[in-house]
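Dear all,

This email documents one entry for the complex benchmark we are building for the journal club exercise. For each entry we list the sequence lines for every component of the assembly. Then comes the predicted three-dimensional structure of the complex as a token string, followed by one or two observations. Please use this as the template for your own entries, and keep the labels exactly as they appear.
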Amino acid sequence: MSRSDAIRTLSVALDERSYPIHIGPGLLGRPETLTPYLAGRQVMIVTNETVAPLYLEAFKRGLPEELEVREVVLPDGEHTKTLESVARIWDALLAAGFNRRCTLVALGGGVVGDMTGYAAACYQRGVAFIQVPTTLLSQVDSSVGGKTGVNHPRGKNMIGAFWQPKAVLIDTDTLATLPSRELSAGLAEVIKYGLIRDLDFLAWLEAQMPALRRLDGEVLREAIYRSCAIKAEVVAADETEQGARALLNLGHTFGHAIEAHQGYGAWLHGEAVGTGMLMAAELSRRLGWLSEGDVARVAAVIAAADLPPAAPADMGVEDFLAVMRLDKKNIDARLRLVLLSGLGDACLYDATPPERLEALLADFPRR
Amino acid sequence: MSRSDAIRTLSVALDERSYPIHIGPGLLGRPETLTPYLAGRQVMIVTNETVAPLYLEAFKRGLPEELEVREVVLPDGEHTKTLESVARIWDALLAAGFNRRCTLVALGGGVVGDMTGYAAACYQRGVAFIQVPTTLLSQVDSSVGGKTGVNHPRGKNMIGAFWQPKAVLIDTDTLATLPSRELSAGLAEVIKYGLIRDLDFLAWLEAQMPALRRLDGEVLREAIYRSCAIKAEVVAADETEQGARALLNLGHTFGHAIEAHQGYGAWLHGEAVGTGMLMAAELSRRLGWLSEGDVARVAAVIAAADLPPAAPADMGVEDFLAVMRLDKKNIDARLRLVLLSGLGDACLYDATPPERLEALLADFPRR
């Protein structure tokens, strides 16, 4: 198979806001994958200090010469996902005199993608943007679906907008430089798709985990393709999370509490989600929905991905609840959790007895 | 006619985002005008230090007791229309633990409305909001149509979103406390509707200007109703300003330059728009589209509304051009201006010869 044969394309079906996801090796250096999605000549690349030395020049070399290309290089890390960082993007756009026909390009992981998307959503009340995710987590999850935004000291992603990209370009070659901790974090979201929706995919992942961990290109591309296919389907059915889209948040309510309590960036988002999914599985078992064998299977695949099996030692029950009460899924004072009604089948549940939740939070392993 | 008979209703037709505009006296104290549009029990009233002493208590007294009502009182003035002020609204929402089913209420003029709308657009990726405009300018223009946002030191309304309210409640009694300078500023936008679209309305305004200036209730309500009807029609046809909606910006490109150069708040927005419309009319005459008599008629109605007939003495040609080049209507490097192809008929024109524009900017009266 030649490298360009290896490129596969999915579509996120949202009427006039529909867009393609191109997945394959070597996309970065090929202008024809990007130029059809530009709104005009003005292009602002947003990236960070980790990604810029690796891919910025290669990416720019792939752009046609007639474009007016500028760049913003932000610091790296979840703790930089703030309104102040987004304001730097706006400052750069205005300093360059960019107008409504400009296009923002997010070159980096989930933090870069979320901030760039939010900057695009609100610059002159909305301009085009393109996702070029360079981490596994952003390739399988955050770059698809139009959730953009920043964190607030009181909660993750509290300020943001739904704003769809014009295209998602996933160059799987960029994973070659991904630190193994970030690879594991990305695998958490991949495992999530199996757990909430596709038992066959979960079984495939269990078998392929060693190949994924050693960055086997073909296996990785298959995992990314199947993950994006599920994400695209869910987003197309419920763009603004009025219902089913919330199921993509398995493990996230517990995970956000860990991230917020530990300080953004101390735990990677995917690591916190991995532990959070295990907590959700265990709570589902206590509610009678999963067997002990099911939970053991979840624990095994989380362990195989080298994700943390226990919550932080310094988090008490109230530390979890304080953040969970502010979760965006809640309605009035009711906590809503994504749980597993079976393996491969998630549900949104708002009737967990508080004492059952507190017992889970008290009993769950720490380390 | 009883006071409740005097309430008239228009609709902004935007499919599932359609909403009503209720216009009449005494709306503030009547909960039934507000409650149908609340998303849930949590209500955050956003107002400013000028409006709060006049109407906040009356407004709150009109709310049902079962609601959880909080308030944010911001400083007054266009110079406060910043991202920092909006962040104060977000802080208040998070401190109160408000969720996705909360509703923001903008009680005040255009600055309060634009900031509250933007805060609602981005809080938890979008919550409900209701406009309760208390100035003539916000009643006839900014509260209708979903343009929200804040200023940036480099340009007006550069950061924002299209986000429609659930309802617009125009209590015309609030105009009784409006300073006469702000009344004039509001009349600028009223006159605008006549100039761009409705010559009959312009003639009616010329006749009724003395009644409007002395706050005759019935005449004011008619002016507000006809203005909102035109605005609603234009917005329904072109919500995100891909075309015809830009015509509502007659005088605004010149006006924004005045506002930005003088420092936000030194000139009221409507004052700058008034002068800007006169500049647009004069440029239209020089392009052969209006007669001298037409321009004299525009000048007379602007004068009758007590709006400034001349640009600021300290503004040179380049001061105008520097801001105008960043106008959101421009495409790539081309200036696009709203001009008058005739009285009652506006057009969007991007082929003004630069020397004609510069001559207009050089010749236009200063004081």
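Observations: Chain B touches chain A at residues 40-42, 83, 87, 90-91, 94-95, 97, 99-101, 118, 121-126, 147, 149, 152, 154-155, 157-162, 240, 325-326, 328, 330-332 (CB under 8 Å). Chain B has a mean pLDDT of 95.
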